[in-house]
User: Fold these one by one.
Assistant:
Number 1:
Amino acid sequence: MQEFAIILVSSILINNYVLVQFLGLCPFMGVSNKLESAIGMSAATTFVLTLTAMASYIVDVMVLMPLGLIYLRTIAFILVIAAVVQFTKMFIEKTSPLLYRVLGVFLPLITTNCAVLGVALQNASKDLNFMESSLYGFGAGAGFSLVLIFFSAMRERLAAADIPAPFEGAAIAMITAGLMSLAFMGFSGLV
Amino acid sequence: MIESIAQQPILAALIAMVGLGVLFGALLGYAAEKFKVEGDPIVEQIDELLPQTQCGQCGFPGCKPYAESIASGDAINKCPPGGQSTINAIANLLDVPAPELDAEHGEEADLRTVAYIREDECIGCTKCIQACPVDAILGAAKLMHTVIAGECTGCDLCVEPCPVDCIDMLPLTEGLKQWHWPAPQNQLDIIASDRSGHEAPSNEGRAA
Amino acid sequence: MRSTWVTPGGVHPPENKHQSLTMPIGSLPIPEKLLVPLSQHIGAPAKACVKVGAKVLKGQKIAEATGAVSVPMHAPTSGTVTAIEDRPIAHSSGMSAPCIEITSDGKDTWIDHKGVADFEHASPQALTKTIADAGIAGMGGAGFPSAIKLSPGHRRPINTLIINATECEPYITADDSAIRERAAEIITGIGILSHILGNPVNILIGIEDNKPEAIAALEPHVADTGISVVSFPTKYPSGGEKQLIYILTGKELPSGQLPADAGMVCINIGTTYAIKRAVVNGEPLISRVTTMTGNACGINRNYETLIGTPVSHMLAHSEFNEHACSRLVMGGPMMGFSLTSAEVPIVKTTNCILAPSYSEIPDDEPAQACIRCGMCAEACPASLLPQQLFWYSQAEDHDRLEAHNLFDCIECGACSYVCPSNIPLVQYYRHSKGEILKAREEKVKSDHARERFEFHQQRMEQAEKDKEAKRAARREAAEKAKATVAANAGTAKEGTGPAPGSAADIIAAAQARAAAKQVSPEEQQAKFERSIAGAEMRVQMATDKLVETNAKQTEDQKNILNAALEGAKQKLEQAQARLAEHVKKHSEQVK
């Protein structure tokens, strides 16, 4: 039980995939303009991450390792991720057309989100069991959601504020992300 | 058997990848059927935000066709009657940046206009009645035509067809009822970029 | 002692009330011209019912209420109506509005009027009608028609009547001085209100503790009446309706709910006095107590001013020093507005004219950047977030503004008062409220236009379909007719006619149809007789024309008219001939 808690805290805060490991910055910057779309995106990414962690574990253990095809991990995992993302895209298009429209191109881009592939590959290299893999995947998603929602809330307030002209737009967003990253360094000695 | 396949790496790789591909393909195919989506409700939501003057200044024959075009990715800054506020609203809905109004399609008018028929010159041809998209002109063949001012949206589609050119677009005067508080002047003058384009702060016209 | 609650937020600006309380309520000489605006209240403007040049008596009705939410206007003094037109009124926009101008005759003659001393036995409906006819609107500043407030109708029964004697804004002492001098009449007024509302269980007079003389004036009159005088610590803005209700009862009214929905009615104490005068003395609302104050005026006191008195008249009798005055304010320093001209009239909701010196109200300092200190949120009596409202107002983010309850802002000015950067916060909120209301109106209009457009398209499609259907039907009918004619031609006994399907066939078919339309002989005769009558009339008209214009016309014209007459005569003869022939034929047939 304690291990699971440690895994979650580690993947959400200490080794946060976005602010500490700097993976998945593309949707982090791209979909954080509005809070509603950020919430939608983080839900989609968490869903993808958890499913991918599970599916890639199964593929790794049942297909790749017995057949000695460990060198094919990257390709196989990309295949898994593409399928999961496609499934997610269809699901969202059906249930929330507005979210689908809002996420736009970023939804299929979850396929190329390095955080997703990063989670899958890291799990495979750490030699975890199924439960631990899935938990890492879910924790990665939760950490991504946490940071994305915080960031988008800040960007909304920045949008209404008096920003000097040279800093408007992406510049102030980058500075804010950097400051958040600095803040998350404070978690490094936690576990 | 697995060991024997494992001995031949190329075959193993081929079988593994093709097998995975087929498996996922089948799953996705099934999901595609289950989650089929008809139509595009986003068009309705965009149409709600457009001003419904049906004037055609955007280049489309009405507001709904323009909404459909926006849903397919067209620029959102083509509607002069809607003005900047409509552009901002559509940008908000679609989560895209809000550009300035495209001057090619017209200027945003400061005051709303309403059509007025000079009755002395009207010949009762009904051309304007046919042109009006909201049926705001009352009349019949060889009888006097007149504009119902309350229904007129100011699209000025009636001005062209009139053969005797007896239709004027008059600005709606705004009285006490339509008056609203103006925005307070932004008087920041701290750094150079604030000062560019601003006049020096003045104390004129400030209420208590 | 009844317990009171404490509202959140609020500020304590210097009261500056003592200056105008040194003398009792005075009266000004009657001005030469009085200007009565037709809209001094919430609701539809009144409609003038007198004409220019009419002589009016004091208290005579000069404008009728229009519609359900409106009040009438009455002449504040006797004189002549000299104009009914747009004039500048006291409004933040500086715009004009329709007004009735009365030139006084100096005699101040009252119209015949009678009140009801024994109101206890009058019906609430009758009393409410009297109040409506007297033109009474909320005199605390809002101007809501009091008769409507007193008729909660289908809403919950009223269990609490609150009389608002708070007068929380600095400088204003109109209600204070009125209470000191007219306490007995005010209590009578409260009795009237109580009777109209069905004798509510709780009757509370809410008053701040900075008015000990007024409290002392009220106490003897409320003994044994069931009315409680409740005083509470002074704080601005305790006099707002929602704030006062919370202070006296601890109940928080939800956003959008009226006090009547919670079983409460809140009436200003000045309005209560006006209601008493209307019911018991039969006097319509034609004057009110107005505070004239500020260091730029030599005399600071309260006056019983006639509605329609120009502000310049008040200033002239108060030793006004124009150069010392930083700005002229109608209302108090927190919620009043600057006047651009002193020629505007006092209206029913004017409680104060403030003429401050530069040391009292200096010129505005320029606004600086918001430092996000949060003092505005501490000061807000409605528990809103002024800082957020400010930022979203600047960004014109209407959704976020409504999410932060922009429309619950009572525009009291406490947030602007405390802002260290001198940001005019209330102006931003007023501007945004206007923008949101405008956007809502435009949405309604555009939805309506969309409906009409869709119906227009539907109508067009239907018309097209109908035309298509008619065309199809006609085609079918033509083909059927062709077929029958061909069949007839085939069986015709008179030899071979022209080839089937030719033009001659169609004509023959038409003639056959006409012949088939047998008209009875009587009808034929009647027809002929009608045509004769018509022809005779035309002859008559032609003759008349000729006779009448014989002298003036030229030769050519005379010839034309003669020819016309000849033609008409000929037609008449033809018609008569036809009739004769028909009669002959018919009689032959009968035979």
Note: The radius of gyration of chain A is 17 Å.
Number 2:
Amino acid sequence: MTTPEARDPALDVELMAYADGTLDPGRRVEVEARLARDAEARDAVAQWRHFDNLIRQTGRAADELPANLRIEALERQLAARLQRRRWQAALMGPRMRQVAASVAIFAAGWGAHALYGAGDALVGHSHPGFVQSTLAGHLSHVLASQQRAEFAGDDMTEALEWLSAQMQRKIDSPKLERLGYRVESARLIVVDDAPVAVFYYRNAEDERVTVSMTPQHATQPHYALRMAKVQDDRMAYWTADAMHYTVVAKTDAARITALAAAVQP
Amino acid sequence: MNLKSELHAHVASLRRYALVLTRDPVAADDLVQETLVKAIDKADTFRPDTDLRPWLFRILHNTHISDLRRARTRADAAADLPEPLARECQQTQLELKQVLGALDRLPEAQRAPIILIALREMSYAEAARTLDVPLGTFMSRLGRGREALRKIVQGVGSGKLALLKRKEDGA
């Protein structure tokens, strides 16, 4: 018997999700209770599943087909092309395009971190060693030409005063000490005429974190907190109080969130 | 999973999808080959931060839609199912023919969602991306298609299948 609550099965997304086994467990009990009362919905689910099984049987017969050498060759060719495409994207991805668009902070923070850290984070594991070395060298050359000053970890008071003067606003330490990190050095680099303060931290487990700050130009957008994964590194960046921030570390999503929260003024 | 392993799994899925679409092993492999050739040509447009599976399925689907020759093949080869299915019992065979026949009577916009979900190869969202339609449109087509399929099969089933059951009961 169909109850007054019965709906058109064709329009019932929950019923379909139930039939396909993708319904949220929290909703399953309610749908099952409804099915117990609604014969039409019950029949619909049973038949959808039956038809799906028959169609799936037909598809699975493909697994019994003999290997197709032409398909295998094309598969290898496509894998090579897609791998090359991934390399291109790693080298010319959003971070690099952002540099071209003068959003210097992202590339400065990430690039500096990669250089200061193991270096392999920049280019990933897919590239031959000589490409990795060349890119690290290139980045080193670029950053050296952009660097204006460098301070040791025990000169942070002086560094913060100097950075504040150069950036014409008060620069505070990222305060990662509370998470067990020690500042090793700070630098001022200039990218596309924009000053970028970069702080390098390390903890007792030799985990490195790079934090950078640069004033938000009037023509630049305000960024809500965003997370990104760059090869093995994770990056968080955002804008607050007219300042762009970037935090980069070889760590997991939870840790980069905690680091960003610690840096957040 | 590395790229080669991932791609190998996707190609196996493509062969399953192609077999349901064409009902003919040779036509299915032709469709997969054509798909891979097109994917190689389009590799430079693939965004590595997106899912590979819907991208490949979309190429296969579009190739199938635009290929009238294969549409004719499907009509001609409807009974030419792969060997493993030929050993199924008579009733399952008849049901299978009815369902596949009913699928062929549906518009392509409804048939493709049903097949993609039935194969359990991807989520609703991935299947919607494969067919390049919004998720709401996809769900609507899936639901309408399933109900239309049910009505067609019920109409047929009241004839042939009922006759078969009566024969079995009497045997």
Note: The first strand of chain A starts at residue 147 and ends at 152.
Number 3:
Amino acid sequence: MALPREARRPLPAAVAPLRRRTLADREDWLGRLMLAPALVYVVALVGVPFALALALAFSSARSGSLEFSWVGLRNFWAILPDPQFHRALWNTLRFTLVSQALVIVLAVTAAHVLSAAFVGRRLVRFLLLLPWAAPVALAAIGWTWIFDSTFSVINWTMLWLGLTKRWLYWFGEPQLATAAIIIVHVWRMFPFATVITLAGMSAIPQEISEAAVIDGAGFWRRFFQVNLPLLLPIITVAVLFGVVFTSTDLSVVYLLTRGGPYNSTHVLSSLAFQRGIFGGDLGQGAAVALFLLPVLVVVAILMLRTARRAEVGA
Amino acid sequence: MRTRRLVRYVKRGVLYLAALAFTAFAVFPFYWMFLTAFKANRDLYVGGTVLTHVPWIFNAPPTLEHIELLFRQTLYLTWVRNTVWIGVVVVAITLVLAVPAGYALARLTGRWGERLGIGVFLTYLVPPTLLFLPFSRMIAWLGLQNSQWALVLVYPTFTVPFCTWLMMGFFRSIPRDIEEQAMIDGYSRFAVIRKVVLPLGISGVLTATIFAFTLVLQDFVYALTFISAVPRMTVSLGVPVALVRGDVFYWGSLMAACLITSIPIAVVYNLFIDRFIQGLTAGAVKG
């Protein structure tokens, strides 16, 4: 980025006068040629389905047949008064916000721990990353077993420690099911946020912290008034990714609770799946899924803004 | 003096304790998978209210029964094979599309290339949740219902944007001077790419390969939407959805499958995680 204009320009032909210029030297065309296949693929298989997602929401399309007819806002009139839809919208918001709040606290703490030098740091980092690296569906099924209604090891431990007197049916009570889903989301996302925060921390010049020490700032003061503000952009990036991955995730809810008990833990994605695939009503499913779009647009805008600010600052 | 040393010891102690707590939280489900995979049934299926039976350790000698069952009597290996061939084809498609595109965005397209690069990356944020319904319709148009080719077609929609972005960052980190020197020596741009850039970028290509493959393994939504025939499933779908016979969960084999699949991926992933983070945060942390 810092290179002056001259340096960016392709070298003058005079330097290599012996060889004829071919297509391979026409940089603009070569660039377009190399870019085109990827671009075509993305437009055809992200752009087109995206447009189709919008179109489906205004249609009466059903799975199993290919007919397609416009019904205007009918799907929206069907879901907007639907309490199950309200619940799913609220759950998506709730699960995402609560889990991301916990993730920030855990990740910033864990990053501070990991940035200190201690024996076995690399091993700890490796182990911390396991939840993020393991396929989410397999991890979710592991948790299903951990929260099992008869054999839950969490319940055993809590009973043994005297933390609870009664048996907890994790997937039988709405509150517990909510807690279980949030725990799994936090477990999955915090390692990712930790590593990102850590990357941000290593980018902060050591002198700043040292200067603060010399000026007499204590740990907490350094943390809240020096480190945290400097880390803010990178934490924002971690959270934005976290929001996207959590709010749009289907596998955790699907495998843990299937939206139960009594449809109390459905999120937009699982409800869209139930209506669109199980129920066969593609139109209504698409209408439900469409409510994820505002979240994604906001995230995209914030992401671009963070990126731009970092670029200006650099 | 003595109090200062004491304070230091306490600080160390807190540090180790915190590290231990985080690790325990992260690892505990995998430890539980491990125990379950090797426990004999009489040790495994003891109700959680029996406080005298400690579930955290082996109370009876470990057994290989569940592993044997998994490999001999379930479709686990078929799913692994399916995943591998789908993964290999998707990786090939991804590299063919993403490596040239990444280079073009890094070097050849100037100002608008940068914008386009960000645009490509944003498409990675468009989630499967938004696209699986229109895809199910498109797959039906193409007549690919219940076919693994549907997955081969759809998976590059997230691997290509991600790997393009990754490769773009990677090619940018190669010093321009090297390429320019080669061109002064009489190479064309194309020859420079082939003879100078690609050999230097081989570790970037390897990173892209690993991540494309792991992204394929991570998918659950698309596989769930498109594939209903059990023998055609991928690991990430088959294990949670179809490794259940009747109403009885075979938890031992199920957890063995989760563990055996997750651990190798996690190990490889860990080796490349720094590059992954660099790729994701390329905008925010200036590389």
Note: The longest helix of chain A spans residues 83-115.
